[in-house]
């Protein structure tokens, strides 16, 4: 009984995704060079899944044209596995990289494999371990014909929203991995915003864990409904057996990162697209690692004497909800702006409405608000920035006062809300017809003859500023 789908890398993600595929009626094979992982899968004793520790045997058991997906750590391992695969696969076979590969690696691998006659699909997979098992969101890009071949499987195993699968062909070459990278950038931004919300409730409003739980619970029943708010609510209810304190309070305040957020910021800087909420989210994870410096500085620079935002907690929570809504919209808007610009630069042929559509389910950043994003891009697929959409515009106007209140109170009381603050300042400059950038141009020209352009006059000019003028 030959398999129609092969998976390389039988960690939890690979194993779960393979079981998901088998559940939908496909015979599957798995390969890993770790015999323990092979045994774990074989010990499930499913007659529709066979795992191998011998690559040749694994490949021989696949139907032609063979479809092999890799779920291995990004980087050199992907190249090594592709190298091994080329020795055992035939031209015309399909290789899918489902890991979080850097889009420039995917770009290179796509070109190389296309030249050699193989079909390569770089595919972002989101939804974590549970998503892989029950229905992820998938962002494939690259070889369009190969996508058409694997589309029926992917559509079956994906999550579904209103009966439609959360998978679609993203675009040319490395488009799939670029889109997944931006997804992760937004993920970083939203997580940072949620953690700042927690900080405001805990330190600014002196709320206890139970009260904070109630807020996240309520938010998840409203317009902020999203996977990340939902799991945050659950974290605020999680106690280990026999213990009466919340478990997450035992965790060190030092955040780790595998790099996709940083890549998003790097790519955005290369494309000269501002995504400051993502940037600050990456930076704050970095700052969290300097525990010893933070500890020392906390003694040198103590808190202001009285930290108390308000006596009216209930009313304040409504403002905080507005602030979070405003900043959340801004985080998605910055990510979408980056996708818009990357599409122009890299000629990916992306459809922003389709991206919003498949992010509505299965992935980590799925949220109620993605319905609005989807609606905005469906109405105008060439929309340059989400802030310019009519309905987003209306809702943002209503939430500005909330974010101004929270950011100013936090500043006055010495509570760090960098992502909220940068969301607000980005917005205030985005709506600023006259930025002070003329002064920067004057300075550049003053010290380095970098030249400037003038209002109402064509051309590029330079002034000898040292001559003192008039
Ligand atoms: C997903 C996630 C996932 C990512 C983790 C960890 O969409 O399922 O984005 O792909 O690996 O979120 O990322 P960090 O280790 O960088 O926080």
UniProtKB/TrEMBL annotation:
Subunit and partners: Homodimer.
Positions with a binding annotation for substrate: 100, 126-128, 183-184, 188, 258, 285, 444, 450
Classification via PANTHER family: 6-PHOSPHOGLUCONATE DEHYDROGENASE
A GO biological process held by the record: pentose-phosphate shunt
Enzyme class, first EC level, given as a word: oxidoreductase
Coiled-coil portions: none
Example GO molecular function: NADP binding
Family per similarity comment: Belongs to the 6-phosphogluconate dehydrogenase family.
Annotated ranges, domain 6-phosphogluconate dehydrogenase C-terminal: 176-466
Reactions the enzyme catalyzes: 6-phospho-D-gluconate + NADP(+) = D-ribulose 5-phosphate + CO2 + NADPH
Gene3D superfamilies: 6-Phosphogluconate Dehydrogenase, domain 3, N-(1-d-carboxylethyl)-l-norvaline Dehydrogenase, domain 2, NAD(P)-binding Rossmann-like Domain
Residues at the catalytic site: 180 (proton acceptor), 187 (proton donor)
Signal peptide per UniProt: none
UniProt EC number: 1.1.1.44
InterPro entries reported in the protein's UniProt record: 6-PGluconate_DH-like_C_sf, 6PGD_dom2, 6PGDH_C, 6PGDH_Gnd/GntZ, 6PGDH_NADP-bd, NAD(P)-bd_dom_sf, Pgluconate_DH
Keywords: Gluconate utilization, NADP, Oxidoreductase, Pentose shunt
Pathway as given in its UniProt record: Carbohydrate degradation; pentose phosphate pathway; D-ribulose 5-phosphate from D-glucose 6-phosphate (oxidative stage): step 3/3
Record's function text: Catalyzes the oxidative decarboxylation of 6-phosphogluconate to ribulose 5-phosphate and CO(2), with concomitant reduction of NADP to NADPH.
Protein name: 6-phosphogluconate dehydrogenase, decarboxylating
Pfam families assigned to the protein according to its UniProt record, in alphabetical order: 6PGD, NAD_binding_2
